Amino acid sequence: MNDAPTDWSLDSWKQRIEQQQIVYEDRDAVDAAVAKLRTLPPLVTSGEIERLRTLIADAQDGRRFVLQGGDCAETLADCTSQSITARLKILLQMSLVLVHAMKKPVVRVGRFAGQYAKPRSSSTETRGDLTLPSYFGDLVNSADFTEESRRPDPHLMVRGYQHAAMTINFIRSLIDGGFADLHHPEYWDLRFMEHAHLSPELRDAYQTMSTRLAEALRFMEALGEQSVDDLSTVEFFTSHEGLNLLYESAQTRQVPRRDGYYNLTTHFPWIGERTRQIDGAHVEYFRGIRNPVGVKVGPTAAPKDIVALIDVLNPENDPGRLVLIHRMGVRQVASQLQPILEGVAASGRRVLWICDPMHGNGITTDQKVKTRNFDDILSELEQAFDIHARVGTCLGGVHFELTGEDVTECLGGAAGVREEDLFTNYASPCDPRLNYQQALELAFLVARKMGD
Ligand code: PEP
Ligand code: CO
Q: Is residue 4 in a domain?
């Protein structure tokens, strides 16, 4: 069934309780912003969304692997050619490492071109005597701790949309221009990247692998193998948390010659851990769209509740529709993941499993800096692979918060970021991200694990 459910409408979510709801003061300005968004052209097409559904269906069956990554929170200020290029490069390089190890295609999905809205554990933040609304991402308000900055501004929905459009426009041009073409190693070769902190071991491992890949590509072409085309031009898809339903629904529409409604702000929106209530506004909105849908699943989820949620979001059990992104934390994954995998497997529901080893592993240092340990991230991932293998389910992807820059936000890795280094270059307005070296290193370690 491809039509939207008969008891669903673009506005039916408004009858439900909305967690993380933004309280705007100026309703007229909200209506004006939503009306503007409704008139603007889409960022992605229904054809691309359908294509991603088929790739996700392949990944469910173990024929592809999904690499999803990017900033915790994109910012409008970071919509620069340098930042976008760096993010694209690290995802491309990580994916090459994974392709090489797994010998299967990797689907690249960025947390970008719209990852501007953030759920918060508290709706307010207090510093000294002053209490203000929390920072909910650049789609909603601004990070500076002033009354003016923290007041939710409806026009930021339009500004966010415009910046998402500029980002995706640049990404499309880069890809069309050969940025991700394996025949142009100058674009993805490390020698052309100035990363002072990259360890010699990692550089060598990557260099050896990329040289081998390029040789293999030439060899296959010499044999006249058609499928090389698949390798030479790569696709990137966009994703973001669909938190602000005013924004998401304003760009949700029907398109000619297709059934159903598409959210055209992104290929792959997901529902966060804090907004996945089965009778809540987010699940109501998401059940009516055609896009593949992600759901974050944390350690408090009960297997029967997850099966019930699957039934609401994918009642026809369509392949390629639903992605469950588990984020248990290194200390909980051993006890919490298996019952959920078993419950879903026993129900016969088809989902793609992805592991997010970031969001269960947040810690705060004595100096009150939010960070994560590289070893915790790696350990959760390795345990997740083992648990899936034990249950007989397929871990078909990984989800990281990362950046192409040399930030110091997560502890550890071969570069040995220490607590005192966190102050050197901590740039995230939200959760700590893996830096360039940590991200590439993790790709090698995951590849090794999967090679085992
Ligand atoms: C996120 O992905 O940035 C996030 C907030 O995740 P979660 O909903 O899993 O906490
Ligand atoms: Co985050």
A: no
Residue 6 domain-assigned (yes or no): no
8-state DSSP, 417: B
* Gyration radius of the chain's alpha carbons: 21
Please return the burial class of 338, using the count of CB atoms within 10 Å of its CB with bins 0-12, 13-18 and 19+.
middle
Burial of 181 from C-beta contacts in 10 A (0-12 / 13-18 / 19+): middle
197 within a domain of the structure (yes/no): yes
Is 272 close to ligand 1, i.e. is its CB under 6 Å away?
Answer: yes
Question: In order along the chain (452 residues), what is the average pLDDT of each group of 10 residues?
Answer: 85 98 96 98 98 97 96 97 92 88 91 98 96 98 97 98 98 86 63 59 77 70 59 82 98 96 98 98 98 98 98 98 98 98 98 98 96 98 98 98 94 90 94 93 90 72
Which ligand 1 atom is at minimum distance from the Cα of 431?
3
Phi, psi for residue 262 in degrees, rounded to 5: -120, 135
Q: How far is the CA of 37 from the centre of ligand 1 (A)?
A: 25
Range of the domain at 370: 12-451
The two three-digit tokens of residue 295, written as one number = 């759901």
Atom of ligand 1 nearest to the CA of 430: 3
Three-class secondary structure of residue 108 per DSSP: strand
* Contact (CB, 8 A) for 391 and 362: no
Ligand 1 atom with the smallest distance to the CA of 275 is 8
Q: Is the CB of 72 under 6 A from ligand 1?
A: yes
Tokens matching residue 214: 């390029």
Q: CATH number for the domain including 321?
A: 3.20.20.70
